[in-house]
Write a structure and sequence with these properties.
By secondary structure, this protein is mostly beta strands. It has 1 helix and 8 strands; from the N terminus they run ββββββββα. The longest helix has 5 residues. The radius of gyration is 17 Å and the shape is elongated. The two termini are 32 Å apart. The mean pLDDT is 87.
Length: 78
């Protein structure tokens, strides 16, 4: 996921869009907006990249989540 801390489109920077690429190679852009959080799985089903920032400074917080089974001691305590 990603949380945008500032807005693009001339406010603080140009470029930096979140770009998803579908099976046919078509690109879908998500414009950076301050406060916007985009959360998505990042496997083969959501190929993505960030477009180059052409000017200014883009501030964002990348987020990485994972799933895993609970530890054995947590299961035994139930």
């Amino acid at each position: 996921g990603i949380l945008y801390l500032n807005a693009g489109r001339g406010d603080a920077f140009e470029g930096g869009e979140l770009c998803f690429v579908d099976d046919g190679g078509e690109r879908r852009l998500l414009a950076p907006t301050a406060g916007l959080a985009a959360v998505f799985s990042s496997g083969w089903e959501n190929l993505h990249h960030i477009a180059p920032v052409r000017s200014g400074t883009r501030y964002a917080v990348p987020m990485f989540f994972t799933t895993q089974p609970p530890p054995a001691e947590k299961i035994a305590a139930r």
